[in-house]
Design goal:
The complex is a heterotrimer of chains A (about 350), B (about 425) and C (about 280). Chain A is mostly helical. Chain A has 14 helices and no strands. The chains are: A mainly alpha (about 350), B alpha/beta (about 425), C mainly alpha (about 280).
Chain lengths: ~350, ~425, ~280
């Protein structure tokens, strides 16, 4: 059975394991150990990576971690609730602008900007969600696109606040922390911690009854309504959480670049985040994180070697949908499931 | 996963990452120049023109600077600040360049400046014209050898009143920082010379249809000053003419409204357009005539200012490097030398930097005319040795805020 | 009074431009429900092909026809190889068509370079007519004429011909249509290629007004989507009224509230969708 398509038998407190779609019924001690080994290895690799990587690659990895948080947040809306949003870059932008404005104008420390960024993004999602969630499918896509463009327009026009298209520069590294984050390596670990925290948080959300209800809504809204669930409220909360986590990513993005401008919120960025989720595998959390890494590498690394990187990116977009519609994680799972089938 | 697999994975990671580590630099090896420009996306052609300018100078000079070979590494910024920042890191940390140059968009310029200062590596900004980069928000390691947005506008405002006799002007500009600065500079000197800006219109970036603005233009004006860039420069003159305005109101513009980038694609609707800029392909000096001829032969088109400033950048780096005996590894000395370069005969004329790091150079008032079946920006007047501060004392000038949408205010609107 | 007349004329002619941009999309997106990010590329490529024809000495009309035909072909290939399998999957459609859009953008840059061009229009369409205090550019009137022409032809074909009925049946309910003996495959392909060629036509006609240059593809894309969405999908009438409305709203908005000029397009779109998520004349 391909992941995610099994009928939702007993949607209430369903047995499908949290961040991993399907397959939970097959959990046996050996598989469980395997399931921990891969993430454990990845985490270990990420922890020891810095000395082995050039400054450039470390920079890319840091960026990938931050974008991974953003992609995972979109996965809540797209992968778990089944709503494709084309305005998600707005939350990244809001978090980043919160940092930029508060640090350059008010000398705010890290904790203040962190809370402000998350709250601002969540508040925006709360407002946008009221408008957008009246629609589904392609209309949802369009409304979120329009809202994203409104946010972009605001960043451009509210010059007294955002300095318009010039952007806000000289955003300092976080202050008010026991360690200095000026160096590339300390900031890398800072981003890694953020990533792990975000991952843990989102994983808890999707494994909770709330998260499972979202999946149920994705599979069939009418069924969930019949079963007595407040569908709209769940979608709304999911949307707001996704926005808040997006803002969280934005905070780190602002600190990382030391610069924010309206181009952080443009439509192309929102499309890219969608691709990250689709490429990695929606509804898996891990997938979008991997997708983020691949896209960051592609844009920054491939363009070093060829000016035709756009062609390659385009091919990746198409190839993903044609060859791996469930994304990389989905493809790996398929392969793993098929080899296990062949073994018996 | 077996231990063998883990080991293989780790080795693979190590091997891949080594690809990013550059080999140690031998002293007196080639001089490495990192060049940042948008090579893809909407501004790709401008990026190409910039690279072509630099490349042409290097090829004319045997690819050598101060006796050492030169290696140029071009990186695509894609017009995005965060990509530009990443590429900057790569150029400085992995490629170990000695000097950087390039950049097109103002926001990229503002994003890179603090990082360049942090790295303590000189970067030349030949194109980026944001006023404050050499005024209220300077960066020590940025050598701005191009221009400021308002630099050509200052003499122009005065000239329009004194020479053309226009006293009432309507301005229409693209609603972003570059537009505000070009229009602002014009308005300041125009009104100080006795003129009045009676209406200020702003159109958002990407406006395809200027009709809502064109039909609002007050007919009791003497002329219209329009600041357009790239695609809007392409569309505006025709729409202006078709709205019946060209016949009644002479069209003045910022330099980019009629610059050589769009001129080949314009037609009769642009003829008579008057604008100021630091360059014109029609400048009648031996240096420029040769430059235009060679560039055209090599790249098939008349060079725009984008190419000229990057061509001169090659020379600029050379002059500075020569002044310190080729020792570009000594960055402080190199930076100081870059600040002292004086070029008397660049294609655009004499160039040297003021105390704030911006060129003092000629400003050419140009008029679009048809010559031999092509459109050219014929130079009708030259203001020599104009600085970013025009006739104002720098500290006086810096007391006023940077030009923006509402500064100078429209007193006569 | 003068203000009203001028801005109304501007709004209507801008609406015509928008309809040209969105006409093809209203077929592909509105009827077939395919979110087509390649629409902008069809527009751009149509313009470039027409330019090539004209540089080669061809007449304007020939350029229009060739542009439309070439892009129709490209559309057919894209649809046949990729899109027809993705019905109902908007994410898949967005990403696949986005991929093509990026590829086409880079190919166009490689083939035609990055310099901006305006499509040279025939002399008789240049200039303007003046009556009293008003001056109306002839080319804008031409654009209204073309838009009206296309709208009428589309309406006639869709509402009054057998093929049109088959098209409507196919996009409404492919299963039933197949059951009734309609060659769903061919008809779907025909509708898609028609939409693509309309986009190319827009590229040529609008190209004389807006220009042909890298980035034009992604610049017009949001505008096209706005019109189809505001007017309501699945409805040609909706696209027509949508473009008029958006044209007038945008024009008057920019003239009366210049501070909000970045929002005159998308804020109303969000507002309309908030009230009626399926657009003004849409059927869900």
């Amino acid at each position: 059975m391909t992941p995610g398509t099994e009928p939702m038998i007993g949607a209430v407190g369903g047995a499908s394991g949290g961040g991993a779609r399907g397959g939970a019924a097959l959990l046996r001690p050996r598989t469980m150990g395997y399931a921990l080994l891969v993430p454990g290895l990845v985490l270990a690799a990420l922890l020891v990576a810095p000395p082995f990587l050039s400054g450039f690659l470390l920079t890319l990895l840091t960026q990938a971690l931050i974008y991974a948080i953003l992609a995972m947040s979109l996965d809540i809306v797209l992968g778990y609730t089944g709503l494709a949003s084309l305005g998600h870059a707005a939350y990244l932008g809001l978090g980043a602008y919160a940092v930029a404005i508060l640090t350059t104008r008010h000398g705010a420390g890290f904790w203040v900007t962190l809370v402000a960024g998350i709250l601002l993004a969540a508040a925006a999602a709360a407002v946008f969600g009221l408008v957008a969630l009246r629609a589904t499918g392609v209309y949802f896509l369009m409304i979120t696109m329009a809202l994203g463009m409104v946010a972009w327009g605001l960043a451009h026009r509210w010059v007294s606040l955002t300095q318009g298209d010039n952007g806000i520069s000289s955003v300092p590294r976080p202050t008010g922390l026991p360690v200095s984050l000026a160096g590339a390596v300390p900031f890398y670990y800072f981003a890694l911690i953020a990533f792990v925290l975000a991952f843990w948080f989102l994983r808890t959300v999707v494994r909770s009854p709330f998260g499972r209800t979202l999946v149920g809504i994705r599979e069939s809204e009418s069924r969930m309504r019949t079963l007595g669930y407040h569908v709209w409220l769940h979608k709304y909360l999911g949307f707001v959480i996704a926005g808040g986590v997006g803002g969280f990513a934005g905070v780190f993005w602002g600190y990382y670049n030391g610069f924010v401008s309206p181009s952080d919120l443009e439509l192309a960025t929102s499309v890219e985040i969608l691709l990250m989720v689709a490429l990695g595998g929606r509804g898996t959390l891990v997938g979008p994180a991997i997708g983020a890494g691949i896209i960051v590498l592609l844009k920054n690394l491939v363009s070093v070697y060829t000016q035709r990187w756009l062609l390659i990116l385009g091919a990746v977009y198409i190839g993903t949908i044609v060859y791996a519609p469930e994304g990389i994680v989905g493809a790996v799972r398929e392969w793993h499931a098929s080899t296990r089938r062949n073994r018996t | 996963m077996s231990t063998r697999r883990i080991a293989a994975l780790l080795i693979a990671v190590a091997v891949i990452s080594m690809g990013g580590i550059a080999p140690a630099e031998a002293q007196k090896g080639p001089i490495k120049v990192g060049f940042l420009a948008p090579m893809t996306g909407g501004a790709a052609q401008v990026g190409k023109d910039m690279v072509n300018g630099l490349t042409m100078w290097l090829e004319e000079n045997g690819n050598q600077i101060a006796g050492r070979k030169v290696e140029v590494i071009v990186e695509d910024t894609q017009g995005q600040p965060n990509i530009a920042l990443t590429k900057l890191r790569k150029l400085v940390e992995s490629d170990k360049v000695h000097v950087l140059a390039g950049g097109l968009f103002a926001h990229v310029g503002y994003a890179l400046a603090p990082k360049v200062d942090e790295y303590k590596i000189p970067m030349l900004y030949p194109v980026m014209a944001a006023d404050d980069l050499t005024q209220r928000k300077p960066a020590k390691w940025v050598v701005r050898n191009g221009w400021t947005s308002s630099q050509p506008s200052h003499p122009f405002g005065e000239w329009v009143v004194k020479t053309l006799g226009y006293k009432r002007v309507v301005t229409i500009g693209i609603d972003y920082a570059f537009g505000w600065e070009v229009v602002g500079g014009f308005q300041k000197t125009f009104e100080e010379a006795g003129g009045q800006v009676i209406q200020k219109l702003w159109a958002p970036l990407g406006t395809t249809d200027f009709a809502p603005y064109l039909s609002q233009i007050r007919k009791d004006a003497d002329a219209v000053f329009a600041l357009m860039v790239a695609a809007s420069s392409l569309r505006f003159p025709k729409q202006y003419q078709d709205a019946g305005l060209k016949a009644k109101l002479p069209l003045l513009g910022g330099g980019t409204t009629f610059d050589e980038f769009v001129l080949p694609s314009l037609g009769d609707e642009a003829i008579g357009g008057i604008s100021p800029l630091i360059y014109s392909a029609a400048i009648d000096t031996p240096a420029n005539k040769r430059f235009v001829k060679e560039y055209r032969a090599k790249y098939g088109k008349v060079p725009s200012y984008y190419s000229e400033v990057c061509y001169t950048t090659g020379r600029w780096i050379n002059e500075a490097a020569k002044a310190i005996g080729g020792d570009v590894e000594d960055r402080e000395r190199f930076l100081a030398a870059l600040g002292k370069v004086e070029i008397p005969d660049a294609p655009r004329g004499p160039v040297k930097l003021d105390a704030y790091g911006n060129p003092i150079q000629n400003i050419y008032i140009r008029k679009v005319e048809r010559k031999d079946g092509e459109l050219w920006n014929t130079v009708i007047h030259t203001y020599p040795a104009v600085s970013q501060f025009w006739k104002y004392k720098p500290d006086e000038f810096l007391k006023q805020p940077v030009y923006d949408r509402n500064y100078p205010a429209c007193k006569y609107c | 009074m003068e203000f009203l007349v001028n801005q109304t004329f501007n709004g209507v002619t801008y609406g015509a431009l928008l309809f040209l941009l969105a006409g093809g999309l209203s077929l592909i997106f509105g009827m077939m429900r395919i979110v087509n990010m390649t629409h902008g590329s069809y527009y751009l490529l149509g313009g470039y092909v027409a330019l090539t024809v004209m540089w080669g000495g061809g007449h304007y009309l020939l350029a229009v026809v060739v542009g439309a035909l070439v892009i129709a072909l490209i559309g057919i290939v894209e649809w046949n190889s990729f899109l027809k399998r993705l019905s109902g999957q908007e994410l898949g459609q967005v990403l696949t068509t986005m991929g093509f859009a990026l590829i086409f953008q880079d190919l166009a840059l490689m083939i035609w370079g990055g310099d901006p061009y305006i499509i040279p229009i025939p002399a008789m369409l240049s200039g303007s007519v003046s009556t009293g205090p008003f001056t109306f550019p002839i080319y804008r009137i031409f654009m209204v004429a073309v838009a009206a022409f296309i709208a009428s032809v589309l309406w006639l074909v869709l509402e009054r011909t057998r093929i049109g009925a088959m098209m409507r049946a196919t996009v409404d309910d492919p299963e039933m249509a197949r059951g009734v003996g309609i060659n769903v495959f061919l008809i779907s392909m025909a509708v898609f290629s028609l939409g693509a060629s309309l986009a190319a036509l827009a590229g040529v006609v609008a190209g004389g007004f807006v220009g042909v240059y890298p980035g034009a593809d992604f610049e017009i894309l949001p505008y096209a989507f706005v019109v189809v969405i505001v007017g309501g999908m699945g409805s040609l009438k909706g696209a027509l009224i949508g473009s008029l409305m958006v044209g007038l709203l945008d024009n008057f908005g920019k003239a009366l509230f210049p501070e909000l000029s970045y929002f005159t397009l998308f804020a109303p779109m969000a507002a309309i969708l908030a009230v009626r998520p399926t657009g003004l004349f849409g059927r869900a």
